[in-house]
Here is the input.
Amino acid sequence: MRYKFMRFPGGKLKAVTLSYDDGIKADLKLCEILNKYGLKCTFNINSGSMGDPKKPNKLTADEIKTHMLDMGHEIAVHGESHIAPGIADPVRAITDVLNCRRTLECEFGIIVRGMAYPDTGITRVDGSNTVENIAGYLKNLGIVYSRTLGGDNDSFMLPDNWYAWMPTAHHNNKNLMEWAEKFVSISLENTYLTRQYPRLFYLWGHSYEFDNNDNWSVIEEFAEKIGKKTDTWYATNMEIYEYTEAYKSLVMSADCTRIYNPTMIEVFISVDTRNFSIKPGETIVI
Ligand SMILES: [Zn+2]
Here is the structure.
């Protein structure tokens, strides 16, 4: 064996995920478009304003349950009151994350471990804060990943740091359609062996921007272009995280002929261009 690469469920080379913030009414229209093309989104919710009658633009818990969770989308922490950890005092930011997590879990009877940094997030870090310290307390609060922003790029790589998960693009990026086209056209044919790693397209934004800019056509066009492809897995942020961590948990024999899957998730791999699946608890010989 020379090289082993992760494949997404079903042996697929590519995955697409979305991340939309603030839990606002325009998300309902976004859900309809994503459902039409089979895309999955993680919606980042501010627990403090969810269903607030003084903020009619915010989604209610019932709307989140019916239009998001029941439709296969996901919710994640976005701070009880939208506090940026990079510039807030740590105890203030910790309270904001923990209260948000507890409220969402209690309201919906689920476990919530994902997050998108609110406001300026970790793009500005002041006072006693450091990016490492923020990641450290998020880990202690049970958060396993957090999305950052401001580094759009078309590498389509999975993150090397889950606490600074950089998306591919915001939907207003002028290169969006070009990059989506490039992503769709990636195939293993004519791809050198060392470059046969999996690819992820991660789109983010706020659905109210489509109303403000009168450009819902952008997300329609994107979803139509990138949706319903047989070589692509459409997943939420947490599904991507859990699957990738399962892949990282695989155990290999010293002579590289046996691989053991100690997780509860079936994992797909490619070994020197040959595809294998390893069921939970299974050891395969390659
Ligand atoms: Zn926000």
The chain has eight helices and 14 strands.
